[in-house]
Design brief:
The protein is built from eleven helices and nine strands. The protein is an alpha+beta fold.
């Protein structure tokens, strides 16, 4: 499935998009480049036809120049999108197969071999440190091998969509994230994900997301002197008003009253 040599066309270990002007339409791009773009912070989005998928931290876009997709910085994003990427060629058949089988957005272990290889290649490219084209091809081959293992290994095939959703919520509930974007990341509709999540975990994902954010808020109220608006933001709530309403409805106390009740010596 690979050509004789893999060719690296571009790479960056750290870039940030913060404007809706950031938009790439792959259909009109010239070339045969294959793009792997991994989110470090924030989130981007990819659109294929009528379906839009979020790419939050811990996920990567698999793309081809000339394909009918576009990726962009969401105009309603609450934070910039920071990512690393490479553009290469020589594995077109394999790349098409992975996109068909695993989708345009795939989860990758932030501490795993694939992401380490991606950032290593991007750093060497940035520093113009490749010895020759064979050096670049060798590292790209290792990257593809680790990506293939991660996409098709036991850990990938043995995790249900509802479990993957729960893991994403646990890891990223403090960031701007909604259930529609979460479902899109997994290649599901919001309604389908909600049904699967209830079957496996006994409650909707939106309820779990709120519980995780409230648990983080309680910890911050107990352990820090952050003002309430900062606690709301650091817990993942979109607004202080929403946070205060949710907190009082579940705790029976305002956030400030909860903080006072947890101070040493309080009645």
């Amino acid at each position: 499935m690979l050509d004789v040599l893999l060719h690296l066309h571009g790479a960056a270990p750290h870039e940030t998009a913060a404007s809706p002007a950031y938009r790439w339409i792959n259909r009109v791009r010239q070339g045969r480049g294959l793009i792997l773009q991994y989110t470090l912070q924030g989130a981007g989005r990819l659109r294929r036809g009528r379906r839009t998928h979020a790419c939050p931290p811990g996920h990567a876009l698999l793309m081809r120049e000339g394909d009918c997709t576009e990726y962009f910085f969401p105009p309603d994003a609450a934070a910039p999108w920071t990512y690393c990427w490479i553009n290469f060629s020589g594995a077109e058949t394999l790349w098409r197969h992975w996109i068909r089988r695993h989708g345009d957005v795939v989860p990758l272990d932030a501490d795993g071999e694939t992401v380490r290889s991606l950032r290593q290649i991007a750093l060497i490219y940035q520093g113009k440190g490749f010895q020759d084209r064979y050096h670049a091809s060798d590292l790209l081959g290792r990257l593809l091998a680790s990506l293939g293992r991660e996409l098709t290994g036991p850990a990938a095939s043995g995790t249900s969509p509802a479990q993957r959703a729960l893991e994403i919520l646990r890891d990223h509930h403090r960031r701007p994230l909604n259930i529609k974007e979460l479902a899109g990341t997994l290649g599901l509709s919001r309604e389908h994900l909600t049904r699967l999540f209830i079957q496996e975990h006994g409650q909707p994902p939106a309820t779990t997301l709120r519980e995780l954010r409230l648990a983080t808020a309680r910890r911050l109220l107990r352990q820090t002197v952050m003002p309430v608006h900062a606690v709301a933001e650091q817990s993942g709530f979109g607004s202080t008003v929403h946070f205060c309403r949710a907190f009082k409805s579940t705790q029976g106390l305002t956030a400030e009253a909860y903080r006072r009740s947890r101070r040493p010596g309080s009645a």
